[in-house]
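FW: tagging you since you asked about this chain on Friday. Here's the raw sequence from the shared folder, copied in full. Didn't touch anything.
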Amino acid sequence: MANEFGQFSLDFFSLKGKVAIVTGANQGLGMAYAVAFAKAGADIFVPHFTEDTNEIRSAVEAEGRRIAFLQGDLTDKSYIERIVESCLEQFGRIDILVNNAGASAFASFDDYPDKYWDMCINLDLNAVYFLSHAVAKVMKEQGNGKIINIGSALSYTADKHCPPYTVAKHGIIGLTRVFANELGEYNIQTNAISPGFLATEVNAELRKDTTFYDKITNRIPTGRWGEMEDLMGTVVYLASKASDYVNGWSISIDGGFTTTL
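HL: got it, structure written out here
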């Protein structure tokens, strides 16, 4: 029995020599995932839509890791093909994929615009499927890989005025299980992270609404909104050898928000 335990070490959490694609890592939560990977030893490839790349470049290079970028629209299938090709050209392999990029759009349910529905479903769900499907082919040839999808508290609940985002994030859980079933035999694990309410620059103004802020905070058993660093350990775990027998599951990083009524 002791010999079995002796194989384990903290090296199981290392990502040295690994290459991670993190979509939309030039901002927001995606940046936290990418920096966490760099700190654990991985090189980073960032498909991005907006122009700003200086901050994530500096953060990754400060860890002594390499980073490359490709700008485009994830709802364009030809761009998805270029992501895979470019990452292989730059780094020669793809070990980790984090499907982080996404968008939401709020409007009255009675006259919710069709264009909002199409935009959210295409980016938040369809693009995740197509990119994962393309990357999985590379991982199958390598004989290993980690796919990490990003869900939400709305993967398990619902909110008003954002129907496609809620549907897409529910779909992410189903998609995660589909890929886990299809790819598990190839030593590729697919899991999801479902962040809850995190204090970010994006929601800084919203948090100034004390009624809303208190309503959310009072429902979180830990009594606080999450910080970026609360995500980083979990994403490294799911990308590392330490999680090789975890497949098809979602970890909620929400302080217990979705456990309460």
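FW: The longest helix spans residues 114-142.
HL: agreed, and The CA atoms of residues 22 and 60 lie 12 Å apart.
FW: great, closing this out.
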